[in-house]
Design brief:
Elements (H helix, E strand, L loop, with lengths): L2 H23 L15 E5 L2 E10 L9 E9 L5 E7 L8 E3 L7 E2 L3 E5 L6 E4 L11 E8 L3 E11 L59 H10 L2
Parallel strand pairs: 2-10
Antiparallel strand pairs: 1-2, 2-3, 3-7, 3-8, 4-6, 4-9, 5-8, 9-10
């Protein structure tokens, strides 16, 4: 084989290897590319602009707890508007809206309202993965007092990686098992006339932590994390 043909064969092999490497990089559930945040949904209707809309499910794929809708709602008009409802078309689930403590579900004129995250208003989907599925682009409709219905398709993602702080506040506790603690042994026989009595133990209560920072969105968190790489 001439030297020119050998050089051509080597170049072709190098290109093929590069393509194979890139393809392998995108394969598998543990691929680093899965850590890249998707482009979150946004739309504008009249005075209302919705940005960074995303549905966040439980971090554990086997969990049956609620999911939440997270989004930044902007009002570009001169009149305050109220967020009246959030619905998931195609499901019978009713989204539960809760204002931030001491506030209302108002999108102020030339201002914004944040849904999701510590200390902010929340929009909870009680059915969780029974109503929405991870990986889907789910239609969500926001209804406002003046503008009316505003719909878009929001990605459904678990509360992991960039989205952990925007996930549901209700995280189901692991189910208790009846197996004995390590090192515990069963006695061979019970002594007549004596009865073992159980010592009541206090049940643990889940506590929710709250934090400041209502001006941050899931996209902001993702951008800050990506900047460190």
């Amino acid at each position: 084989m001439s030297s020119s043909l050998r050089r051509g064969a080597l170049a072709a092999s190098a290109i093929a290897f590069s393509i194979a490497s890139l393809a392998a990089c995108g394969a598998g559930n543990d691929s680093q590319t899965l850590q890249i945040k998707p482009d979150n949904a946004a739309t504008t209707v009249g005075d209302i602009k919705i940005q960074n809309a995303v549905i966040v499910t439980q971090p554990d794929p086997k969990a049956t707890g609620p999911a939440v809708v997270s989004a930044r709602l902007f009002n570009q008009g001169a009149t305050d508007q109220t967020l009246q409802s959030v619905t998931i078309p195609g499901t019978s689930d009713t989204v539960k809206l809760t204002p931030a403590k001491g506030q209302k579900l108002t999108v102020p004129a030339h201002g914004s309202l944040m849904l999701g995250g510590p200390g902010n208003a929340s929009a909870e989907i009680p059915g969780g993965r029974g109503s929405v599925q991870d990986g889907n682009a789910q239609k969500v409709t926001f209804t406002f007092s003046k503008t009316g219905a505003v719909s878009l398709n929001a990605f459904v993602v678990p509360a992991t990686s960039y989205f952990d702080k925007w996930g549901p506040s209700q995280i189901p506790s692991p189910a208790a098992t009846g197996s004995p603690a390590p090192g515990a042994t069963a006695s061979g026989s019970a002594k007549p006339g004596k009865h073992d009595t159980a010592n009541p133990s206090a049940t643990a209560s889940d506590t929710a932590t709250t934090g400041a920072g209502t001006d941050v969105t899931p996209s902001d968190s993702a951008s800050q994390s990506a900047a460190g790489h």
